[in-house]
Design brief:
Helix 2 (about 35-45) packs across helix 4 (about 90-100), helix 2 (about 35-45) packs antiparallel against helix 5 (about 100-120) and helix 4 (about 90-100) runs parallel beside helix 8. This protein has 9 helices and 8 strands. The protein has one domain: P-loop containing nucleotide triphosphate hydrolases (Rossmann fold, 3-Layer(aba) Sandwich). The protein has helices at about 15-25, 35-45, 55-60, 90-100, 100-120, 130, 145-155, 165-180, 205-219, and strands at about 5-10, 30-35, 65-70, 70-75, 80, 120-125, 140-145, 195-200. By secondary structure, it is of the alpha/beta class. The strands form 2 sheets. The chain has a 5-stranded parallel beta sheet, sandwiched between helices. Bound molecules: 2'-deoxycytidine-5'-monophosphate.
C-alpha cells in the first residue's frame, strides 16, 4: 500500500522538529528527524577522532538506526541510545560540516527512503523535498529570520548553565545556514513544489495549525 510522505525542510532553528512532532501526533504519522541521524554520524566521527579526509574509509562502520517508542524517535549508534548527547553546539557544528560529505549522505539516504516506503511519515531535514523524497505528497519549506531563530534558541537555553550569548547563537545560526545552503551535495533549498511557511511572526501553535491545514488540503 502506498504510504503518505510529508517533507519539511528549512534552516536550523525554524521550529521544524517541534512543529512536526505536534502535527504528526495529531495526524497519527511517524515523525522522522533526519538531523538526528547526521548528528549521530558526527558524534561517531568526533568520538573516534576521524579527520574529514578519512570519513569515506570509515563510514561503512557507522551503524545508525532509529527506534520509535510510543511514536517518539530515538537514535542509536550500534546499540547505544545517543538521542540526548547529540544536542550540543559542538555536535551541531560538526554535523553541519560532515553532512556536506557525499559518503555521509549516501549512508543515510537508503535508511531514510526505506522509512518513507514503510510508514506514513513526516520527515524533516534540509534535502527531503529536493533529494530524499522528490515525490512526497506534501512539501513544506519552513523558515524564519535568523534573528528570530536565534532569539527563540536563546530563550530556550537561558535557564541552563553556560548559556551562550545571543550574539554567539546568532553567529552559529548564520554559519550553519551558510554551510547548509552552500555545500555542493544536496544543499538546503526550497523545492519548486514546496509551500513556503515563514514563522517569524507566528507562534508555535499558529505554525502547527498552518501546516496541518496545508497537509489536510493536499492529502
Ligand atoms: O536539523 P538539525 O539541526 O538537527 O541538523 C543538524 C545538521 O545536519 C544540519 O546543520 C545539516 C545536517 N542535515 C542535513 O544535511 N540534511 C538533513 N536532511 C538533515 C540535517
Amino acid at each position: 500500500m502506498k504510504t503518505i510522505n510529508i517533507a519539511i525542510d528549512g534552516p536550523a532553528g525554524a521550529g521544524k522538529s517541534t512543529i512536526a512532532k505536534m502535527v504528526s501526533a495529531e495526524m497519527g504519522y511517524i515523525y522522522v528527524d533526519t538531523g538526528a541521524m547526521y548528528r549521530a554520524v558526527a558524534l561517531y566521527l568526533t568520538e573516534n577522532n576521524i579527520p574529514d579526509e578519512d570519513i569515506e574509509k570509515h563510514i561503512g562502520n557507522v551503524d545508525v538506526s532509529l527506534k520509535f517508542i510510543d511514536g517518539v524517535q530515538r537514535v542509536y549508534l550500534g546499540d547505544r541510545d545517543v538521542s540526548d548527547i547529540i544536542r550540543t553546539p559542538e555536535i551541531s557544528m560538526a554535523a553541519s560540516r560532515t553532512s556536506a560529505i557525499p559518503a555521509v549522505r549516501a549512508r543515510l539516504f537508503d535508511l531514510q527512503q526505506k522509512l518513507a516506503r514503510e510508514n506514513n511519515i513526516i520527515m524533516d531535514g534540509r534535502d527531503i523535498g529536493t533529494v530524499v523524497l522528490p515525490n512526497a505528497d506534501v512539501k513544506i519549506f519552513l523558515t524564519a529570520s535568523a534573528e528570530e531563530r536565534a532569539n527563540r534558541r536563546f530563550k530556550e537555553l537561558a535557564e541552563k548553565p553556560d548559556c551562550p550569548s545571543y550574539e554567539e547563537i546568532l553567529k552559529d545560526i548564520i554559519q550553519r545556514d551558510y554551510n547548509d545552503m552552500n555545500r555542493e551535495t544536496a544543499p538546503l533549498k526550497q523545492a519548486e513544489d514546496a509551500v513556503l511557511v515563514d514563522t517569524t511572526e507566528l507562534t508555535l501553535e499558529q505554525s502547527a495549525a498552518r501546516i496541518t491545514e496545508i497537509i489536510k488540503e493536499r492529502v
